[in-house]
Amino acid sequence: MALSLYLDRGTMIHRLHPTVKVISLFVMFWSVYWVDHPLSMIPLGIFMAWVAQYTGSWKNFYRYRWFFIILVFTTMFAWMFFYRQGTRLVHVPLIYISRMSLTFGFGRGIKLAELLAASVLFLSVTRVEEFTVGLSKLGVSYRVGFAISLAFRLVPLFIESAVTVVDSQKLRGYDFDKGRLFERLRRYVTVVIPVFMAALRRANNMAMALEARGFGLLNSPSTLIDYPVKPADIVASLTLFIIGAGYFLIYYTGYGAIRVS
Amino acid sequence: MNDKALSASEVTFTYHGGTVPALRALSFAQGRGELVGIMGGSGAGKSTLAKCLNRLIPEFEGGDFHGIVMLGRARLNDLRVCEAAALVGMVFQDFEAQLFCTSVELEVAFAMEQVGMDRAEMRARLAPALESVGLPGFEHRDPTSLSGGEKQRLAIASVLALRPSIIVLDEPTTDLDPEGKAEVFALIAKLRQQGLSLIVIEHESEELLQADRILLLRKGELVADGPPAEVMTNFDLLNQCDVHQPGLNRVLHLIGIGGHAASVDEAYEAIVRKYPALRDAQRVRTLPPAPIESGSTPTAPLVEMENVTFEYPEQGKSALDGVSLEIGAGDFLAIIGQNGSGKTTLAKHIVGLLTPTSGRVLLEGRDRTSMRAAETAREVAYVFQNPDHQISAESVWDEVAFGPRNFGFGEAEIEKRCTEVLQAVNLTDMRDSDPFLLSKGERQRLAVASVLALRPRLLILDEPTTGLDHREQRNMMALIQELNRSGIAIVMITHTPWLVAEYARRVVLIRRGRKLFDGSVQEFFAQDDLLARSSFRAPPVTQLSRRFGSVALTPQALADWIRERG
């Protein structure tokens, strides 16, 4: 199992200044935040698809394909319980199916998928070290920035550990697929303790190793790699500004909203 | 000029909340350029001592610390851990937990960055550090893509770059295969030649035979401090300290020569001096008869693997490539091979955690691929390398009862099975204890007990002795041998040569997903070319026996052979 999403492709986007990369993640989140209608999310989706193509990041999207699909459709379905506006198309107990509820639910699903896509893209082109540098340049303390970036690296390790724990329980006859949905979820509680213990041990070992390598001596350590600001960073920043401002304009003019039909 | 690299004086430490000191008034000194080995059983205080040397104790792990640690003329007591980092380099056992960066060069630079070194100086130190550990050209590699031995060498490079006065290596090879282990010890020998002061904590005594001095710890006390020739020949003391007696010294002792041999060559010379007739012993091509084993005789195949190939979806290459294998009831099989060679993948096919891309796995004649993992659990049990991946209950009893409860056994039956297996693994007195408060050896035995309660016919153990001291290893292996005698087939995945030599009856060697060898242990160790190609090393005693043209698997067997022919 690959432990990092970073793909060392060396494209212009890979070589952007870390701060620009962190800002780009923020702008993606910002843009998605302001709009609800699925159509208004299309331009951002196209932009991200272009970035994925240009940076050769489709491999990572393929890894999470099922997660994207499940995210969109479960979100859409879940909102049918709560979003009860528009003319009802079909009468089904508990859920409310209208053109508006479908649009809203689908929009929420796409919104979450685009947030995830932005994160996948960011991690595909950004080393964890760059993430730390980017956060530091934006005023976040080195320790906090390092901890955040390290967390990204740890998540796959914890997933790996959880998979091993699930396997070990299965081999003692524990059936995780038994019962209805909530019963199945409840059965996964047995995984929590071993994974938590493994996570604690690993975190403790890692913290010791970090201290033993001088972590924490300086508030602002030096860096092996120089990150000069290049013309491409200016162009990228302007592009991001236009995207962010454009999406705020879409929100402000009301085009990103779902109107009552 | 002070010729001491390091000195510890009256170091005493009690962990926070503990009542018994983990270290008791421990004093020692290390000369410049010396290689000092620290040995002792679990809980002897080895790692605690190491952490005292770079201030992780008491700065990181709190407690009551007394004593003075001096590095040359500098007093370490007043430093923070991060301040001591540039003076004392520390390499840990868990190589995964000490690599944080996404490329080798960034990993090496990490510590230099932390002390604020300027970029030009970092660049200047990078190449020599990688050169020292044999990793030039690896600068842009992702550390996660390296082998275990390479990762550990990278960890050493990252501390070397700071040019510390001393490097402390805390069980640096525990999780490595024999090749990785050899790489790390070759590097240690090279650094020693360059004049670096080194402290190495190890379980395996053979690795430290060439140290300048050995410190032997027991229950936090220093019970011996001397050259290997003195410490490693005191078998009673080694026994009391739960340290493996070096096989070569054991052979010399058994044949009445006595003394210390730091290498196979030295042992050979000592033996032929006493028994000159053996010097001309021709290498025999016929093997001595296999020793009579006490396990039950293998009968009809329990598991049959037919031409099994498997590819992990993301890797695009075969993790297993056309492997065929039969495991009989009562077999005792060791699966060996380098890290990542496919050993665990093979075992996961047997228990049903993985399904072959092509080929079949039959369990007592039934196609296992059509059975779910839970279905096979009563026939085939798997004990994971890390027992903590298995343990989830609040008491030892509940942990053992977990499996039988899943299969819906009645309380009387559960009671009977749990009592039986807790007795077998010698944990009856701890039935109400919290599993996470047990020692590693006890948790390992609990993991075995928890699968034994299902009364499997085949038990697969992934590195069952990792992290255990010698006494715990012997206890664990005695338990496994006893289970085998009772008719349970054993498949043991291991990197430890002496476990293969002394306990297994059959060896399967896997290399890059292919089965390279399947035969008796003696046949395996007799194939010098195969051993060289597979990067697996015979235990020193077996290597020594090969010099005489024999294949002895234990010190006693070799001593008998020498007495008989010499």
Q: Helix coverage percent of residues of chain A?
A: 55-70%
How many strands, what sense, and barrel or not for the largest sheet of chain B?
6 strands, mixed
- Classify the secondary structure makeup of chain A into a structural class: mainly alpha
Our count of helices of chain B gives 22
The level-1 CATH class of the largest domain in chain B? Alpha Beta
N-C termini distance of chain B: 52 Å
Fraction in helix of chain B: 25-40%
Label the CATH architecture of the largest domain in chain B: 3-Layer(aba) Sandwich
CATH superfamily of the largest domain in chain B: P-loop containing nucleotide triphosphate hydrolases
- Identify the biggest protein-protein contact and residues per side: A-B, 53 and 69 residues
Q: Which blocks of ≥5 consecutive residues of chain B have pLDDT under 50? A: 289-296
User: How large a portion of the residues of chain A is in β-strands, by DSSP E?
Assistant: under 5%
Rg of chain A (CA only) = 22 Å
- Tell me the number of structural domains of chain A: 2
Account of the protein in words:
The complex is a heterodimer of chains A (261) and B (566). Chain A is mainly α. Chain A folds into two domains: 1-139 and 230-261, no CATH class; 142-218, no CATH class. Chain A is 67% helix and 3% strand. A two-stranded antiparallel ribbon of chain A has the order 1-2. In chain A, strand 1 (88-91) and strand 2 (96-98) form a beta hairpin. Chain B is of the alpha/beta class and 566 residues long. Chain B folds into three domains: 32-59 and 82-227, P-loop containing nucleotide triphosphate hydrolases (Rossmann fold), CATH 3.40.50.300; 246-279 and 537-566, no CATH class; 301-536, P-loop containing nucleotide triphosphate hydrolases (Rossmann fold). In chain B, 36% of the residues lie in helices and 22% in strands. Chain B has 22 helices and 20 strands. In chain B, the strands form four sheets. Chain B has a six-stranded mixed beta sheet with strand order 6-7-8-3-9-10, with helices on both faces. In chain B, strands 16-17-18-13-19-20 form a six-stranded mixed beta sheet, sandwiched between helices. In chain B, helix 10 packs parallel to helix 22 (555-565). The longest helix of chain B has 16 residues, at 178-193. Residues 289-296 of chain B have low confidence and may be disordered. Classes of the chains: A mainly alpha (261), B alpha/beta (566). Chains A and B meet through helix 7 and helix 9 of A and helix 3, helix 4, helix 5 and helix 14 of B.
